[in-house]
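Final report, Chapter 2: Outcomes

The project's central promise was a pipeline that accepts a single protein chain and returns its three-dimensional structure in a standardized token representation, suitable for archiving and comparison. That pipeline is now operational. To close this chapter, we reproduce one record exactly as it appears in the project archive, with the input sequence first and the structure output second.
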Amino acid sequence: MVSGTGPSGGPAQSASTGAGGGSPSEKGGAAPSASASVSTPASESTVARRLNGLDLQADDAPSSQPAASKKKKRGARAVGPDKNGRGLRQFSMRVCEKVESKGRTTYNEVADELVAEFSDPNINIHSPDPDNPSAQQFDEKNIRRRVYDALNVLMAMEIISKDKKEIQWRGLPKTSMSDIDELKTEIVGLKGRIDKKSAYLQDLQDQYVSLQNLVQRNEQLYGSGDAPSGGVALPFILVQTRPHATVEVEISEDMQLVHFDFNRMIPLY
């Protein structure tokens, strides 16, 4: 316990000892990034970096048909970008361009423009299969799914916002110099904490090794019959203070209570 003032006028320390922790899911694995066949503005480089690794197959647009029936109609699908090399990352950049240029728009407006754009034979790498009349219809639905997923990705990144059916451009995230300086300061602080914890861990390891050596030595002494006659019985408390500290000690008559008065903080072991 802590009490009183010490003889030197400073704060006194007293110690007594007694005996006794929204967006739809994306099916399929990650696919390699698609090569863009449409020129992109300067802002796309930032979006591309932030959307790196998001080139996934977009199969989760809302649909009233069960998944099993869709598989029966369309058959097996290849995982990754479609036949024209269009991936979610490219669609996200194109959607980003569309919303940025319009300011306010809707999903249908963006999807219709992209369907018309990618259906242009001058843009498409492969023309529709003449032996498969439903190929063009499937490609349009695939584009709309990817636009839907791209909008969800951009909303999650807070680049765009959605109010009911209206989609609004918010802007690309910006990093200021103050943010960078703040992050650098945080890194320095975290490194300092790591260094302190590492030093503390090393101290604990040293204590453990010392105690293990002490136990081994005592076992050898008692095993050889050369055990010391004296010693301190366990349990005990070790009180440490500086050589010139003022210490007052009071011991009860039955030797069961010891009262210490110190003029400064002391460690107990």
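Archive annotation: Helices lie at 43-50, 67-74, 88-102, 107-118, 135-156, 177-224.
This record, like all others produced under the grant, will remain available to the consortium after the project formally closes.
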